[in-house]
Amino acid sequence: MSCLIEHKAQTIFVSASSVKENGKKRRIVIESRPEFAIVRLLGAKGQFPIAWEMIYEAAMRHHAANLRLEAEAEKSHKAQSRKPAD
Question: Which pLDDT value is given to residue 1?
Answer without folding.
Answer: 38
